[in-house]
Design goal:
This protein is of the alpha+beta class. It contains 10 helices and 5 strands, in the order αααααααββαβαββα.
Length: about 240
């Protein structure tokens, strides 16, 4: 790259930096956001076309950030250093969202919890089960991935999940898993898993507040909002009553 091209590129990058300081991220297109992230890996390279090509191929900014290193390096002009920059900022964002919810009351911060879960699960090709642990006042203690693979009653052991809750001294739980297919509706196995966890937790005075299913994009299905948690609680109460 000759000196004229270098100066031109540096001038363009400086204008982007100035615009961010003046207007924030709202002043950027998705293509420009990707471009800036790519320049973190190769600060002296022109990354405009690679950013545009990545956005055109994957369709959205989240999809670019969720793409695998192998997929990203198929974009012309995008090498390992650029991929590192994208993956690193993705990891920072996930850690930020995870740590941001700790200490907050769940009922007042449900949207932030959903944002964290969406960001942590979106784009995964396999299922994961995440548990959010809460104290007696429903303030968030921690969150933890407790299972990966196929999440159903045959692969999740409720007692192991309850042991994790006891380890965190949790009084309540919110569980969440993703459907890589994008389908939001809970399966019968999802309902059975929820019922078993609620029943086992009730014996130990650990309340299951909700089961969230993360689908495609920004979509989340809530057992509580759909009225399924009330149904499950009623079923479990009847079961416990019949035992008495």
């Amino acid at each position: 790259m000759d000196e004229t091209a270098t100066n031109k590129g540096e001038g363009h990058r400086q204008r982007l930096r100035d615009r961010f300081l003046e207007r924030g991220i709202a002043g950027f297109t998705d293509s420009e956001v990707i471009e800036v992230l790519l320049t973190f890996g190769t600060p002296r390279s022109d990354c405009k076309q690679a950013a545009r090509d990545a956005l055109e191929r994957f369709g959205s900014l989240p999809a670019v950030l969720d793409a695998s290193p192998q997929e990203l390096q198929q974009i012309k002009g995008m090498g390992p250093k650029n991929v590192f920059a994208l993956r690193f900022i993705q990891g920072v964002a996930r850690r930020y969202l995870k740590q941001r919810i700790v200490g907050k009351q769940y009922l007042r911060s449900a949207r932030e919890v959903a944002d964290y879960l969406i960001h942590s699960m979106r784009g995964l090709k396999h299922e994961v089960l995440t548990v959010v642990f809460l104290d007696a006042a429903h303030a968030i203690i921690a969150s933890e991935v407790v299972a990966e693979g196929t999440v159903n009653i045959n692969t999740i052991y409720p007692r192991e999940l309850i042991k994790a809750a006891l380890r965190h001294n949790a009084s309540a739980l919110v569980i969440a898993h993703n459907h890589p297919s994008g389908v939001l509706q809970p399966s019968e196995q999802d309902k059975t898993l929820t019922r078993n966890l609620h029943l086992l937790g009730s014996f130990l005075q650990i309340r299951l507040l909700d089961h969230l299913i993360v689908g495609a994009g920004e979509t989340v299905f809530s057992f509580a909002e759909a009225g399924l948690m009330n149904q499950i609680q009623s079923q479990c109460s009847q079961m416990l009553g019949s035992l008495g």
